[in-house]
Amino acid sequence: MDKFMEEAILQARKSLQEGGIPIGSVLVRKDQIIARGHNKRVQEKNPILHGEMDCLNNAGRIGSYKNTVIYSTLMPCYMCAGTIVQFNIPKVIVAENKTFEGAWKFMEEHGVEVINLQLSECIAMMGQFIQEHPDLWWEDIGAL
């Protein structure tokens, strides 16, 4: 498995250990991780701290994002996808979208290359989380 996706999965597990939703993300430029993040909506009681948003926040002001790739353990939602489009991040590598369809088409329509790996490990992790914590999950995706 790709070392960057492995790091995103570690971030997802970190969120789960903290009592949060197991979604992790890393931002890569020139084969180097420049930021990591994980979903902190529960931990910090912040509705916009999805994994990708936390990762981009941790990156800070890096100038142009045009030469970056963002990895996520789950297909980005429209909020995260909108940020990816706004910052001109050209490529997203996603672990899965079986548990959440997300904004794949939206990103592609805006010129973002989306690679979906459908990793069974991440599908199982999210599936178990959703089964054990349905209220947190439905809140996270805005479906309560």
Task: Characterise this structure.
The protein is of the alpha/beta class. The chain is 41% helix and 18% strand. The protein contains 6 helices and 5 strands; from the N terminus they run αββαβαβαβαα. It has helices at 3-17, 51-59, 78-86, 104-109, 120-132, 134-140, and strands at residues 24-29, 32-38, 68-72, 91-94, 113-116. Helix 5 (120-132) packs across helix 6 (134-140). The longest helix has 15 residues, at 3-17. The termini are far apart. The mean pLDDT is 95.
What descriptive keywords fit this protein?
144 residues; alpha/beta; five-stranded mixed sheet; 5 strands; globular
Calculate the terminal CA-CA distance, rounded to whole Å. 35 Å
Radius of gyration: 14 Å
Structural class: alpha/beta
Strand content: 15-25%
Low-confidence stretches: none
The count of β-strands is: 5
Order of helices and strands: HEEHEHEHEHH
The geometry reads as: globular
Overall pLDDT metric: 95
Task: Give the proportion of residues in helices.
Answer: 40-55%
Across the major sheet, the strand order is 2-1-3-4-5
Number of helices: 6
Sketch the major β-sheet.
5 strands, mixed
Could you provide a short overview of the structure?
The protein is an alpha/beta fold and 144 residues long.
Secondary-structure map:
Layout lengths: L2 H15 L6 E6 L2 E7 L12 H9 L8 E5 L5 H9 L4 E4 L9 H6 L3 E4 L3 H13 L1 H7 L4
Parallel strand pairs: 3-4, 4-5
Antiparallel strand pairs: 1-2, 1-3
